[in-house]
Structures are given as structure tokens and as C-alpha cells.
Write a structure and sequence with these properties.
This protein has about 180 residues and is mainly alpha-helical. The protein has eight helices and no strands. The radius of gyration is 21 Å and the shape is elongated. The chain starts with 7 loop residues before the first helix and ends with a helix.
């Protein structure tokens, strides 16, 4: 149940307490602010699952960064909402970059050896630099349309591991393509 009547001063006290490592303050702040923060994240992402993931990620980030909050520099509410808003905007920007990469990957010809057409020499070079798991996961996901769950089953790896392979693979591709 959300604590709807939490004042700005109480939010400040909770952030300062979280900065000192008080877990109970984090739980209190979560109860008080999670619904409002989820609303902001939903408006930004237009995706409930993504907003819920960002809410969780944001509270983890808050736990690690609360000591940076300085009550003399501004309102606790503004600092808190800014932290979550920037997290969402960063992810949305990253998704935009991924979309470009996914469009490039979608143009690849479907063959088992991942031979790329000559018009994609840079992409071919970058894919060749990837490790086996990341490359295989990317190929199965973006060229053959397997979901994360299907990848996990097909590759015999935990879902979190498969997501990590995809994320690291996309990051390495992006880095390589942007050089």
C-alpha cells in the first residue's frame, strides 16, 4: 500500500537515510513513491513491463547513489524523479540505437553460416568479432525471430544468461559499427 501523505521533508529524510545505508528507509520510500514513479515511467516508455523493469532498476540505482543527494542543492522529490526519468530516457535512446542495428541485422541473408552480402562489409567484420554465444544468440533472435524464452530453451542456457549474451553482443556490435 502506498504511503500517499509523505511530505517533501520526509522524502528528504528518507533519501538521506538511504544514503547512510538504511534499508528500511528504502522500503519506506518505495511504498511511498513507487506508484508515482511507475506512472512517470509508463508515460515515458508506453510499455508496462519495461516501466516495471525500470522501476526496479531505478531503486537499485537509488540505493547506490542516494549518498550523492544533497538537500541543499534542491528538492528531494525533483532529485528522485530526475533519477528515474533519466534512467528511462537513457534506455529509450539505447533502444533507438538498437533499432538501427536491428534493421541492419534484418537485412542479412538467412543462411546457417551467417554469410553477409558484400554491401555489409562493416557489419560482417563486426559480427566476426563476436564470441560464439553472443553471435549465435543474436542470429537466432534477430534473423530467425526466436524469443528470449525460445533462445533459452534452444541453447540450453538460463534466460538471464541469454539476455546477457544478447545485450553484450549488441553493445559490441554498436561499438564496432560506430568506430
Amino acid at each position: 500500500m502506498a504511503d500517499k501523505n509523505v511530505s517533501g521533508a520526509e522524502i528528504t529524510e528518507l533519501l538521506v537515510a538511504i544514503g547512510r545505508g538504511e534499508k528500511s528507509a528504502l522500503a519506506q520510500l518505495y511504498r511511498a513513491q513507487a506508484p508515482n514513479l511507475l506512472g512517470v515511467l509508463l508515460r515515458l516508455t508506453q510499455d508496462r513491463a519495461q516501466a516495471e523493469d525500470l522501476l526496479q532498476e531505478g531503486f537499485v540505482k537509488l540505493w547506490h547513489k542516494a549518498e550523492l543527494f544533497d538537500p541543499g542543492q534542491g528538492s528531494a522529490q525533483a532529485w528522485l524523479f530526475s533519477l528515474f526519468r533519466h534512467l528511462a530516457l537513457d534506455q529509450l535512446r539505447q533502444q533507438g540505437r538498437r533499432r538501427v542495428l536491428l534493421q541492419q541485422l534484418a537485412e542479412l541473408e538467412p543462411d546457417a553460416e551467417m554469410v553477409l552480402p558484400s554491401r555489409h562489409p562493416r557489419l560482417q567484420h563486426c559480427l566476426a568479432q563476436l564470441g560464439g554465444e553472443s553471435r549465435q544468440a543474436l542470429e537466432l533472435c534477430y534473423r530467425h525471430g526466436l524469443t528470449h524464452e525460445e533462445l533459452s530453451s534452444h541453447l540450453g542456457a538460463p534466460l538471464g544468461t541469454v539476455k546477457s549474451w544478447l545485450k553484450r553482443g549488441l553493445e559490441r556490435l554498436k561499438t564496432c559499427l560506430c568506430r
